[in-house]
Task: structure prediction
Amino acid sequence: MPIVTIRQLEGRTVEQKRQVAKEITNTIVKVYKIDADRVTVNFFDMPNYNIAKAGKLFLDLGL
Amino acid sequence: MPIVTIRQLEGRTVEQKRQVAKEITNTIVKVYKIDADRVTVNFFDMPNYNIAKAGKLFLDLGL
Amino acid sequence: MPIVTIRQLEGRTVEQKRQVAKEITNTIVKVYKIDADRVTVNFFDMPNYNIAKAGKLFLDLGL
Amino acid sequence: MPIVTIRQLEGRTVEQKRQVAKEITNTIVKVYKIDADRVTVNFFDMPNYNIAKAGKLFLDLGL
Amino acid sequence: MPIVTIRQLEGRTVEQKRQVAKEITNTIVKVYKIDADRVTVNFFDMPNYNIAKAGKLFLDLGL
Amino acid sequence: MPIVTIRQLEGRTVEQKRQVAKEITNTIVKVYKIDADRVTVNFFDMPNYNIAKAGKLFLDLGL
Result:
């Protein structure tokens, strides 16, 4: 703990996740003054037919 | 926000998700009196070897 | 399963949750053609200092 | 309810999940004195590029 | 990782959680053959007006 | 979407959450090249009797 979970539309690259995980961890370490070892980051990549905004699937919104 | 997450056995069609996302959003808009734009719906489709009820995998229950 | 989870700003009444739980369950029963007994709904009420949009806490946005 | 969710690095076998689901359910039934029918277990199998510890992806840690 | 999350009706004692956390961790260590240090357990205690089954709040079911 | 969720031991101040929410959002906007409006951050503050590591409650570990 802390455990950071990021739900996002699929399609982000491994390099993007690598950078996001590193920077988010650095932020938490700096602001909470804790060891980096305690921070876990998880990504969930979601297809566009599994997300809806305002009642419409991302698939139908062309996202 | 609100964020609605639905964990379910995989196999629902896109058309079913489309309808569920629409109707759930309509319900929340009506009851909470908020704009539809604020409502996000996420689906997680889970294989039958990743769900257990009463200690038995859905896979073993023939579901 | 399905398990429906709703994260929302705190302040909804029990009567609103009662209605939302009933209508969402009805939608899922109708669209997925399953028994209502299989549907669980959970609410998480979140204070305005625990939600941020566009990098700003709801607390600071006056929400 | 209770709903038990296990997020884990992918690669566990169905037989391992079968045993974990059974034993966790038994523990909850015994300690909480409730019927097994009320206990749901869900697994999320996560690829090593979607987990980071101390700011580094499991992929980069050779896990 | 693994991260085990247990959502449950509020009212379990600390002693019950202590025992459940210990036994679930032991199960995972034994079946997955990993170090106990890697296992995190989280509990979410939910009031009876925030859970519904079959479209009815636990509050209204007398639970 | 993306939705960032941070589960953490309770006790962080609003000012710490304000800063974490801002910096995490900035990171995501920069790396994913998306509008800040699309990013939601949620915090869950957990008491020390609801977290266990290596089978021991944080409460019992003096955390």
Notes: Chain D has a mean pLDDT of 98. The CA atoms of residues 48 and 59 of chain D lie 5 Å apart.
